[in-house]
Amino acid sequence: MEAKVSQGLQLSRWIDQEKIAGKPSRSLRFFQKCGDQRLFRIPASCHLLTKKGRFHRPLVLKVSCSSENGSASLLEPESFLATDDESEIIKNKSEEIEPYLNGRCIYLVGMMGSGKTTVGKVLSEALGYSFYDCDTLIEEAVGGSTVADIFKLYGETFFRDNETQVLQKLSLMHSLVVSTGGGAVVRPMNWRHMQKGISVWLDVPLEALARRITAVGTNSRPLLHHESGDAYSKTMMRLSTLFEERGEAYANADVRVSLENIAAKLGFEDVCNLTPTVIAIEVLSQIVNFLKK
Ligand SMILES: Nc1ncnc2c1ncn2[C@@H]1O[C@H](COP(=O)(O)OP(=O)(O)OP(=O)(O)O)[C@@H](O)[C@H]1O
Ligand SMILES: O=C(O)C1=C[C@@H](O)[C@@H](O)[C@H](O)C1
């Protein structure tokens, strides 16, 4: 099954913290038996605590469908939109970081599907930076072929050479957020280019990556692509192998943003409840801490 059930409900009401005070996990749970006898768990996003006080998040109900293969769980696109509170916080964080960052580029590194593109766009907008996706630049450099075709027609080494060239060009520029390819971290030369700016590792649990990637399919990701078999398990297996090879390389980044840590801090059980804006806010906070050292 290439794409699994993923369904979301966005309720336009706000949770008041007092109404859930005393709930140990700060999350609401609803259980419901479905027609096909699978249990759907619906977590509810609640409030976030900040130095300035607390702010409320809209109640986002998301249906995750559990099955023997893991559970499909993606935020609906409308859940990617920032709330007013999130927008204010990211604006304040961006203003705080500006003098420290001083136009230095931000390079997002991480496994395929870790959200480098999605979070990168939010960051670039908040900072007034330009956004570049290395994969897209490589595709353009190779005359519009897709990453999958470049791998098929010319091989991985050709792709990696182009990736290094693209990073080299980007390293001469300022005020960019760059979403790097998942494998850019394996070449030491690429790090030399990225060291001109700040590198940030988006560390996302493999099972969450497998769920995201399974939901959209593996056609555009040649290193994960498979023709047959259970999509989730195959993707999970390949991601695990890649991560064993690359885990240490990702850890070279200046800053590590762990979605598990953010979820634990905010009282969410599932990292899939974290919106790109919440993740981007954490990225900025961690960069400020790094630059203030
Ligand atoms: N915070 C999030 N919550 C849920 N889904 C997300 C989140 N961020 C990204 N996604 C989804 O995960 C998938 C991969 O995201 P994205 O393309 O941003 O990752 P990437 O790191 O740039 O991937 P790649 O390196 O493979 O290009 C997309 O379908 C995107 O919508
Ligand atoms: O993890 C990887 O090696 C890759 C990730 C993608 O972003 C692309 O750069 C390409 O599919 C290779």
From TrEMBL:
CDD domains documented for this protein: SK
Top-level taxon: Eukaryota
Cofactors (names): Mg(2+)
Gene Ontology cellular component list: chloroplast; cytosol
Entry annotated with the keyword Metal-binding: yes
Pathway: Metabolic intermediate biosynthesis; chorismate biosynthesis; chorismate from D-erythrose 4-phosphate and phosphoenolpyruvate: step 5/7
Subcellular location(s) per record: Plastid, Chloroplast
Pfam families tied to this protein: SKI (PF01202)
UniProt keyword list: Amino-acid biosynthesis, Aromatic amino acid biosynthesis, ATP-binding, Chloroplast, Kinase, Magnesium, Metal-binding, Nucleotide-binding, Plastid, Transferase, Transit peptide
Gene Ontology terms, MF aspect: ATP binding; metal ion binding; shikimate kinase activity
Reaction catalysed by this enzyme: shikimate + ATP = 3-phosphoshikimate + ADP + H(+)
PROSITE patterns: SHIKIMATE_KINASE
GO BP: amino acid biosynthetic process; aromatic amino acid family biosynthetic process; shikimate metabolic process
Record EC number: 2.7.1.71
The keyword Acyltransferase is assigned to this record: no
Function: Catalyzes the specific phosphorylation of the 3-hydroxyl group of shikimic acid using ATP as a cosubstrate.
Similarity annotation: Belongs to the shikimate kinase family.
Protein name listed in UniProt: shikimate kinase
Organism lineage: Eukaryota, Viridiplantae, Streptophyta, Embryophyta, Tracheophyta
